[in-house]
Amino acid sequence: MLEVSGLRKAFPDGSRKLAVLDDVSFTLAAGDFAALYGKRRSGKSTLLRIVAGLDVPDRGSVRIDGNELTSLPADQRARFLRDRVAMTCFFFGGPDRNRLVREHVAMAQRVDGRTTGRRASRQAREVLRDVGVQECYEAPLRRLSLGERIRVELARALIRRPRLLLVDDPPPLHSPSEGNDLYELLLSLGSNAERTVLLASSDFDLAQRAPRLLRLSAGDLRAMDREATVVPFPMPKTGTDQA
To answer: Span 134-160, mean pLDDT?
Structure first.
């Protein structure tokens, strides 16, 4: 479903350029759930933004369903990705704090005028129920707890029923039980064979629970086995596989 090949992205750092992604390659099939672990400022968000079509690499390519995206003009890329990919970021505050939850979630469906207000509101109620915060439908964003706000942002990403959901580093919740509930929700979102989930996280305890774990460090991507040992990526084939 997703093929990332040879991505490189560098940013100015004084008199030199700092490579935050250096020859990054990986693939995800439909229905995969993968966690991308890395410390803050390790390049996780940059990688997700490139996959989401919000940024372009200096080198390399991104393919979704076999379609190469990085060479497309921005408007064509946006049209192609609209109903295929959604990215959730968690930057709370600003003027939207007084917006009602139903308006906030429905806005993602109404932005290009293809969906009526009534239909978008109905879809907002459905996705809020899917993430377990249907009772927040009429509440202003400023009154939500952190856990509720995270779920509302997930609902906003899910309203278009994307095939690829990118979740960018959810903030830590106040209790282990809340964190566990959030992980179980994310896992359930990826249980649909038609949806692929890529979760970026700086929380290793959260990331290591994913069925598939990748680590990003100094621009380099590695797979990790269940004992948290870094191994080459892509995984080397065994003799049986080669046969």
So the answer is: 93
